[in-house]
Amino acid sequence: MNKITCRFLSSVLLACSPLAAAAQAPAAKPAAPAKPAPVAPPVLELRSYAITALDPNDINQAYATLFARMAAGKDVAAPKITLLAKNKTLLVRGTKAQLDVSDAILHLLQNEPTAAKGQQVIALKAARVDEVLAALQALELADQVVPLRTSNAVVLVPSSEANGQQVKKVIEAAEKVSEPAKTPVKNATR
């Protein structure tokens, strides 16, 4: 064989080999990133709560504050709520996690047993809510309660057992009614 034939055969063999085919093939395009699977919207439920123990307006006003405190650290946004004041019904629409927190709030507000330690509604008798709040603010304990002004009560949601005990002591002091001083009556002589 002559030189030209040898070169020709070499180039044909080289061109037919898998390595040569890969070398001559255009570079493969990177695969397109996989699209994430669509996220299903959360399932929303609607619950109705009959309000019996407190004024419905108090519950409606206190709900957002209580939800924020009781859902802290749970990454749960507040659900949608509306109050039907005429028939004392609170409607709550949300996910199961939101409704679980709502159940705890409504049990607490209705003075039903809850799993949360130290949380309770304290009805004031002699003291007024604003007086108690002023005293708690002066002692930097106001964030441990949620006022229920129309019902003249506070919801105790302490951050610790010690804070709960201190708030109770302030409320006890505010509830004490001082008796009028007794002045001795002199016997009238005739």
Uncertain regions spanning at least 5 consecutive residues: none
Euclidean distance between termini CA atoms: 162 Å
Main sheet makeup: 3 strands, antiparallel
List the total number of helices. Answer: 6
Give the SSE string: HHEHEEHEHEEH
Helix content: 25-40%
- Looking at the structure, what is the overall shape? elongated
Given helix and strand content, the structural type is alpha+beta
- How confident overall, as mean pLDDT? 81
Strand content: 15-25%
Cα Rg: 37 Å
Strand order of the largest sheet: 1-3-2
Number of strands: 6
Description:
The chain has 190 residues and is α+β, with helices and mostly antiparallel strands. Helix content is 39%, strand content 15%. A three-stranded antiparallel sheet has the order 1-3-2, covered by helices on one side. A three-stranded antiparallel sheet has the order 4-6-5. It is elongated, with a radius of gyration of 37 Å. The model has no long low-confidence stretch (mean pLDDT 81).
